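Problem: given the chain below (293 residues), write out its structure.
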Amino acid sequence: MILVIGSTGMLGSEICRLLKEKNIQAKAMIRKSTPEDKRNDLTKLGLQLVEGDLRDSSTFHNVLEGVTTVISTVSSMPFAYTPGENDIISVDEKGMIDMISAARQAGVKHFIYTSFSGNMNLIFPLSKAKRKVEAHLLQSGMIFTILRPSFFMEGWLSSMVGFDALNGKVSLCGSGNNPAAYISLKDVAKFAVESLNNPAAKNAILELGGPENLKPLDVVKTFEEVLGKKIEIQNMPEEVLQEQFAKATEPMQKSFAGLMCCMAKGDLIDMHETMKKFPVQLTSVKEFAQKLI
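Solution.
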C-alpha cells in the first residue's frame, strides 16, 4: 500500500490523480481540519483517507499501518504557513524527520521525498529543513528516492511571484540572464509515480528540471510569442534581493527571500542522462504558456 503525504496540495493531488489513472491503490493522509471538498476530491479518486498530522507523531501508527511506500510532497510553504502552529520547524523539519523514523519502525520499504534542487545551496530555514530531512532519510535504512526539482513553472511563472504575463507585466529576480531549468509540477508528479517501480529511482537523488535551461528574459520572449503581445519587464537587482535576505528575520520571509536570491543566480540542470532512464515527457515553457491561454 502507498501512502501520500501532502495529498491536498497542488503536487500531491496531481500524484493522487496519476495513481488513480494507473489503477494503483493508495492512502492519503489528511488532517482533521481538511475541508470537506478536498476530502471528497480524494475519495473520488479512489484513495482511502487516513487522518494524521506531522505535528503530532502519536497519529503516525494508524496512518502507516499496512504501508510499504510513502510519497511525501508536504510543505508548510507558501499557502499553509502559520508561525508557531504550521511552520517550517514543526512540519518541514521535525514533522518529516519524525515521520521518516516512524515509517522505518513500521516496516515501510521505500520512502519518496520531495526536496528541491541541489543547486539551491543558500542557507535559509526551508533549505536547512530540506537538507536535514534528506540526511535523515539517507541514514534511515529504507530504500530512498529524493526528488530535487528546480523552480516550478506553476509558481515561478505566475502572478504569485510577480510574473503576471497574462496582464503584460513581469518582475524578474536579478538580471534575467542566468538560465534556470523550469519544470512543471505535473512532470514532478510523473517522476514520483514512476519512482515506485523504476530501478533507477532506487536509492537515488534525482535532480529534476525541464527540457531546457532558459534565461528568464528568454522565458518572457516565449510568453510574448505565445500571447502575441509585449510584456513589460521590471528587474529586481540581485543586490536588493540580497539586502532583503539579510534583513529578513521571520522564517518564511527569510526562506522566500532566499529562494528569490537562488532564482537570480539561476539553476542549470542537465536532464539528458535522467531521461534515458525515466519515460517522462517533459513540458516546455512554451507548452506551459500555451495552456494558459
